[in-house]
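STRUCTURE:
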């Protein structure tokens, strides 16, 4: 496979061929196909599709998060993303800072099994082991009691002189462990937060029963399918923000042992690809019909055209003499 062929495969799968997403059905089909994507291009660059690129239908001069407010295409793409979140066709997670990361409904239970909290109903504890600050615990209790709630009302409920930056850090602590999630957005009130277990209990229950190893294996397999072909280093870089590289290598080895991954040479590099992407071997059918003008032989380089001649029948063997014949002699 050449580099250009791989890029064409990715452009087709990532909806970058000129036909952008316009309906909620198109957006649902896209997120189900790729499994997960970022809303805007990530810097430094990450090998993953973007929702705004699929909405526009190309990857030329895509708006970044800092310039999205001035680009009407970015606002329309975000509105379509909010519709996906309201329908629970996709879930928003915290993978990259300052960038929305969408996960399809089918993939989300595995994502929760990898990073989610195993006791979502219990209030988190503020200590160094859990990674929650006292402000994050107080915010969770208010969201659990009064959610869905906007960040502005949450700040009023917390009281005191809490800065917006401190509240954002507390919300990110809860969001990183999938304790809470953004469920709506209104122009006059901003983003609304709710407890994830209440917002989508079935998805959380499924994720609670998925082990970390099983979840990571499923996510690595989906990512390789999303990228069509990818090097092992790129797989490790993508998941390095979530788990250690050693665990990613273990997941790749498990998929290879189960024969769910194959190898392909792209531009002199050995890359991973889904096993079903490899063309199955087809045995050459043997020719049984004799040669004739209506049925010519197949042209093969270096092979003369020789008429097919049936083999000469072998001479029948003589039967062995019986004992009675020997007695007569």
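SEQUENCE:
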């Amino acid at each position: 496979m050449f580099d250009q062929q791989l890029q064409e495969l990715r452009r087709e799968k990532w909806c970058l061929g000129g036909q952008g997403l316009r309906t909620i059905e198109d957006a649902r089909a896209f997120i189900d196909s790729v499994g997960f994507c970022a809303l805007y291009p990530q810097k430094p660059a990450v090998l993953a599709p973007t929702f705004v690129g699929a909405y526009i239908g190309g990857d030329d001069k895509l708006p970044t998060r800092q310039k999205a407010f001035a680009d009407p295409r970015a606002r329309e793409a975000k509105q379509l993303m909010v519709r996906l979140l309201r329908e629970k066709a996709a879930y928003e997670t915290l993978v990259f800072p300052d960038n929305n990361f969408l996960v399809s409904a089918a993939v989300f239970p595995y994502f929760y099994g990898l990073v989610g909290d195993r006791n979502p109903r219990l209030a988190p504890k503020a200590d160094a082991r859990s990674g929650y600050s006292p402000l994050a615990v107080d915010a969770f209790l208010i969201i659990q009691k009064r959610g869905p709630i906007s960040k502005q009302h949450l700040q009023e409920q917390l009281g005191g002189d809490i800065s917006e930056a401190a509240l954002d850090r507390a919300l990110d602590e809860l969001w990183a462990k999938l304790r809470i999630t953004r469920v709506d957005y209104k122009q006059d009130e901003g983003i609304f937060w709710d407890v994830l277990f209440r917002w989508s209990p079935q998805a959380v229950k499924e994720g609670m029963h998925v082990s970390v190893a099983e979840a990571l294996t499923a996510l690595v397999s989906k990512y390789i399918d999303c990228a069509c072909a990818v090097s092992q280093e790129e797989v490790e870089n993508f998941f390095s923000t979530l788990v250690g590289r050693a665990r990613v290598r273990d997941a790749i080895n498990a998929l290879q042992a189960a024969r769910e991954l194959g190898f392909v040479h792209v531009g002199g590099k050995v890359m991973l690809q889904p096993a079903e992407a490899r063309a199955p071997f087809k045995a050459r059918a043997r020719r049984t019909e004799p040669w004739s003008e209506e049925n010519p032989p197949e042209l093969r380089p270096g092979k003369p055209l020789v008429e097919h001649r049936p083999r000469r029948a072998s001479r029948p063997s003589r039967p062995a003499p019986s004992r009675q014949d020997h007695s007569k002699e």
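REMARK: Residues 279-284, 299-307 have pLDDT under 50 and may be disordered.
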